[in-house]
Specification:
There is one protein chain. About 45% of the residues lie in helices and about 15% in strands. Strands 1-2-3-4-5-6-7-8 form an eight-stranded parallel β-sheet. The longest helix has 15 residues, at about 105-120. Helix 4 (about 70-85) runs parallel beside helix 6. By secondary structure, the chain is an alpha/beta fold. The radius of gyration is 18 Å and the shape is globular. Strand 3, helix 7 (about 140-150) and strand 4 (about 155-160) form a beta-alpha-beta unit. It has a single domain, classed as TIM Barrel, CATH 3.20.20. It is built from 14 helices and eight strands. The structure holds zinc ion.
């Protein structure tokens, strides 16, 4: 029954949807100089001992993207995969700073290519975009990215996100950005409490006034923060397999998702970077059900939250 239900993905990185096969295709198409030349080698890249390994893989894959039209290929593949799981609504997180400031790709041309791919599938899925300011790129690039986002609303850009290194680049650096984002009419989400502690989540709530929190699982360490999330109905975008793969959590049983749910925190279920973590939303549902963490009824409620807390107007 859960397979057939319409579903929504709120926390899924577009660049994290590139399959090993497509990575290889991009290596060949863009003549990338690398020792990685086979599918097996690409797959090996997607095994991590820690978060640094994951980051290395992410940077490598991002480097395989060399032109705006690569985004058409990536989006086509990502949307086809989502539709095969009966996902009818997606809010892709896209991180332009890396491509527009470091590689000099054109932001609007990238969006045109994403939309070209969307055109083929628009009768089956609604696609909105969240623009990630990327903490590591700093304040100035953040402001520039925000201005571009404002000019691209016709491409269904509905939200501003903040990903990247939450330890080195704390939320307070982006307080003004989030204030402006709200002024521009954007909804906001902030990755917090994945690598950082509960303070990082508190800052995302109190300083950035984020509408949703990406991950946020370390809120489990702070009762007062849990109360704050419950009181203000701030949902978490939980991505269990992602947390296991990057070794933040040791097992599904030890994942705080159930405890947070029991304490009344609103939970949405997501895949984060499906290709990198060898998962998808359907798999997330299956593992939580098979490990008896949630009943079918509870999972239906969690899946409905995906629509309820979306940034779709
Ligand atoms: Zn993420």
């Amino acid at each position: 029954m859960l397979n057939q239900l319409p579903k929504a993905e709120l926390h899924i990185h577009l660049e994290g949807c590139i399959s090993p096969k497509t990575v290889l295709r991009l290596i060949q198409r863009n003549k990338i100089e690398t020792e990685i030349q086979t599918l097996k080698q690409v797959r090996n890249l997607f095994h991590y001992n820690d978060f640094t390994d994951f980051l290395k893989a992410f940077v490598f894959v991002s480097n395989c993207i060399q032109s705006e039209s690569d985004f058409e290929i990536i989006t086509q593949e990502a949307l086809a995969n989502l539709i095969s799981q009966n996902i009818t609504y997606v809010e892709f997180i896209f991180s332009p700073p890396i491509f527009i400031f470091y590689k000099n790709l054109n932001y609007f041309k990238i969006l045109e290519n994403i939309w070209k791919a969307y055109g083929t599938f628009a009768n089956k899925i609604k696609m909105n975009l969240q623009i990630d300011l990327v903490r590591n790129c700093g304040e100035e690039m953040g402001f520039k990215t925000l201005e571009l986002a404002k000019k691209s609303k016709e491409f269904n850009v509905v939200g501003i996100n903040l990903g990247g290194d939450e330890l080195q680049f704390p939320a307070k650096m982006f307080e003004r950005h989030f204030l402006i984002a709200k002024d521009f009419g954007f909804k906001t989400s902030c990755h917090a409490g994945e690598w950082g502690n509960s303070q990082s989540i508190k800052d995302a709530v109190n300083l950035l006034k984020a509408d949703r929190i990406g991950h946020g699982i370390r809120s489990i360490e702070d009762e007062s923060l849990i109360e704050l999330l419950v009181r203000n109905e701030i949902p978490l975008e939980v991505c269990p397999t992602s947390n296991l793969e990057t070794k933040i959590v040791n097992s599904y049983q030890q994942h705080p998702i159930r405890e947070l749910y029991d304490k009344g925190v609103k939970i949405t279920l997501n895949s984060d970077d499906p290709s990198f973590f060898k998962t998808n939303l359907q798999n997330e549902i299956d593992v939580l059900f098979e490990n008896e963490i949630f009943s079918e009824k509870e999972l239906i409620e969690i899946l409905q939250n995906g629509f309820k807390y979306s940034f779709e107007k």
